Amino acid sequence: MAEGAAASSGAKGATRVGVLPKGSGEPGRRLLIKGGHVLSMDPAVGDFASADVLVAGTTIEAVGPNLDAGGAELIDAAGMIVMPGFIDTHHHQFETALRSFLADGILVNDGKPHGAVNYYEHILQTFSMVYRPEDVYINELFGSIAQLDAGVTTVMDVSQIHHSPEHSDAVVQALKDAGRRSVFGYFEGWGEAARYPDDARRLKSEYFASDDQLLTMVMGGEIYLPGYENAWKTGRELGIPIALHVVGTFGMAPTFDELARAGQFGPDNIFIHMTGMTDLAWKTAADAGAHVSLSVPIEMTMRHGMPPIQKALGLGMQPSLSSDVECTMTADPFTQMRSALTLQRALVNDAALAGDEDLPALLTSRDVIRFATLEGAKGLKLDGKTGSLTPGKEADVILLDATAVNVTPLNHVPGAVVTLMERSNVDTVMVAGKIRKWRGALLDADLPKLRRELEASRDYLFEAAGVERDLFRA
């Protein structure tokens, strides 16, 4: 889409409605997001029924009512909720071509009919084994762009697809080309050409030597894999966070307890799911300052175990939210927030109806927005850059349409975001000051071309894996 010129009438520097401001994100370029309902997610900044956000280059310069921003180009935010972009702390983007394939599946085969098509055997042991670097690239790129459309400006990509250095390079290139803030999760791969975890040093040196970029790196340290100790050691030598799935279904609790007793947990750990773990492990994780990423809809539907949201809250741990796998569930943030809110409230409300008097506090809409923004940034060690509309942070900003038919009239900003909205309400998306979605349309993406490439990858994966494509499989 071509960038628009300034209007010839009205306020100096103003743009016509729907005209794309020029040069967003470039050094010296100033944009004033004017007159929106500002949900900053920073208590020191506050919230405003009507206020402005001034962006200078890549960063937020100021937040408040009636900002004086001479020379800045205006973005009319009347009727829009202006807030920080959402953060997804765990997303297997390499599976984008397999969307909905496992909609009714569970993690492992339990010997019953509903377990016949399952994640471990079909996704990890069958489909993932036949990915070529070009499949990795288009899956990662398309998944990233699709989440930008939904207002997710930051992701931790858990790419368990590192079958060769070329596969790893394809992941990094796709994340870079997507132009989104991304955390490259270097997890395992399979086959003779796999170099995990030893290739971590090359990747860190080649792609992540600087912190002044949109891409950062996390080390995958899955404790169900032989030799995981080396992955943990490598991650700590490189000074990057160590992330891992922690799921009772796979019998991880004894190993996790051993690590807890050995004092191996730290603030550099990101524990995904944390289902089925002991009180010892939980307390040790909390005391160590480890972070917990919850994928509430997936955990409930795929038999990871009951999402331990209240366990985390009871220990003073503030979780983040993550989408996990699109082969089973959508990766939009509104689904994640609503699921977390309704599950925790259902558990507390059920206890209240049973006569319990010592009840935990009910989660609020603001709480789950915080999980989906600032807490995600903290977990990924990015809260100095993103997660709130704080002057000095990078401008990861979204505008949500509160005048749309599914929201109007607006009566409560956090409530509208969590209980009423979905991706169609995402009007404008900005990453580090650069506009990536404008007035409902993605920019810098040839979607028909990318769709054809993703479909071609899907066709190859099914054929190479020997899996029949059946659109109405029971």
Architecture overview:
The protein has 474 residues and is α/β, with parallel strands linked by helices. It is 32% helix and 21% strand. It has helices at 119-127, 133-149, 165-178, 200-207, 228-238, 253-261, 279-288, 296-301, 309-314, 333-353, 365-371, 374-379, 413-419, 447-465; strands spanning 30-39, 47-56, 59-64, 73-76, 80-84, 86-91, 152-159, 181-186, 215-220, 242-247, 269-275, 291-294, 320-321, 397-401, 426-431, 434-438, 441-442. The strands form 2 sheets. Strands 1, 2, 3, 4, 5, 14, 15, 16 and 17 form a 9-stranded mixed β-sheet that branches. The chain has an 8-stranded parallel β-sheet with strand order 6-7-8-9-10-11-12-13. Helix 5 (228-238) links the parallel strand 9 and strand 10 (242-247). The chain is globular, with a radius of gyration of 22 Å. The protein starts with 29 loop residues before the first strand and ends in a 9-residue tail after the last helix.
What labels describe this entry?
single chain; 474 residues; 9-stranded mixed β-sheet; 8-stranded parallel β-sheet; 14 helices; 17 strands; globular
